[in-house]
Design goal:
α10 (about 235-260) runs antiparallel to α11. It contains twelve helices and no strands. It folds into three domains: about 1-35; about 75-155, no CATH class; about 180-314, no CATH class. The chain is an all-alpha fold. The protein starts with a helix and ends with a helix.
């Protein structure tokens, strides 16, 4: 008998002695423990090795196929893309067990989410092959977004949520490109609206991975603010600064609501990057912009320090 079984045996007999368990119950517990087969759990290194092997395999195949992709006949390209997509989708369904997820190991859930995300990429390739050359980007983005939106409610997982986010960005970018939108303010507005949607998903608990949603929404806010702040006109640059302020506040609010640190990453980066860019364009002086941003940072540090010093233990 192992040391673990010795300790369990002693603990069970103590429970019998104080009347918590009867002798018959104790015997049945010990019998179950002794007869149940031992299961070994695979460590994170094994899981990492599996992902690394899969990434290397995918990279190697890509190095062979991508250079000659356009030279392949249409039927061959369509068949290859469809076959890969179906295999990935079936693999995600088999591993993820979407209709009976109770007791599903976390490693299996992560793998299913990753396979579904890759299947979305495959669907994008199929759609791109079938669409005219001028609309490949939009068709592929829409197909990928459709797959992720259908798969996420049943499979969940951060990889699939990230794929959904990237697909949504691709769709917005493709639509702006289709309509030949060049104004930086318009691109900034589109990304800001999409970022607000992702922040809303994180706040409203529509997704399990609220930190990932907050990180994605905040990153879109950072991009929106910087795109507008880098514009040559003062009005659009100030618009970018305003966007940054809103998303910074939302990032800190999301952290306070969820206590999930990913919300803070884009908020801090936005505070470091966007104000300096916007003020540099508005004031036409990098020195003045730097001094202004430093002053604001100092005020925030002083305010935060004063709040910590005045806080009383509960």
């Amino acid at each position: 008998m192992t040391d673990e079984l010795h300790r369990l045996d002693n603990a069970v007999r103590d429970l019998v002695a104080d009347g918590t368990l009867t002798q018959d119950q104790a015997d049945r517990v010990l019998e179950q423990v002794r007869t149940r087969p031992v299961t070994r759990t695979r460590g994170p290194l094994v899981e990492f090795a599996g992902y690394l092997g899969g990434a290397l395999l995918l990279g190697g195949v890509s190095l062979v196929v991508v250079p000659t992709w356009d030279d392949l006949p249409f039927a061959v390209r369509l068949a290859l893309a469809t076959l890969v997509t179906v295999l990935l989708a079936v693999g995600a369904m088999v591993v993820g067990r979407p209709f009976r997820r109770e007791g599903l190991p976390a490693a299996h859930a992560r793998l299913a989410s990753t396979l579904a995300a890759l299947a979305a990429g495959g669907a994008a390739t199929v759609a791109a092959v079938l669409s005219p050359d001028d609309h490949e980007f939009l068709a592929g983005s829409l197909a990928a977004l459709a797959v992720t939106l259908v798969a996420y409610p049943s499979l969940r997982g951060a990889p699939l949520l990230v794929a959904t986010g990237l697909s949504s960005v691709s769709v917005v970018s493709a639509i702006l490109d289709e309509f030949d939108v060049d104004a930086q303010g318009s691109w900034a507005t589109a990304y800001a609206v999409l970022g607000a949607v992702w922040l809303g998903l994180g706040f409203a608990k529509f997704v399990d991975e609220r930190g990932t949603a907050g990180l994605f929404g905040g990153a879109l806010g950072l991009i929106a603010g910087e795109v507008a702040a880098a514009d040559g006109t003062d009005r659009v640059a100030l618009y970018g600064l305003a966007l940054a302020v809103v998303f910074i506040a939302a990032g800190f609010a999301g952290y306070l609501a969820t206590r999930s640190w990913p919300w803070l990453v884009p908020a801090v980066l936005s505070a470091l990057i966007v104000p300096a860019t916007a003020l540099s364009n508005v004031l036409h002086s990098g020195l003045a912009a730097g001094a202004t941003v430093a002053a604001v940072g100092a005020l925030i540090l002083v305010g935060g320090g004063a709040t910590m010093l005045r806080r009383r233990p509960a």
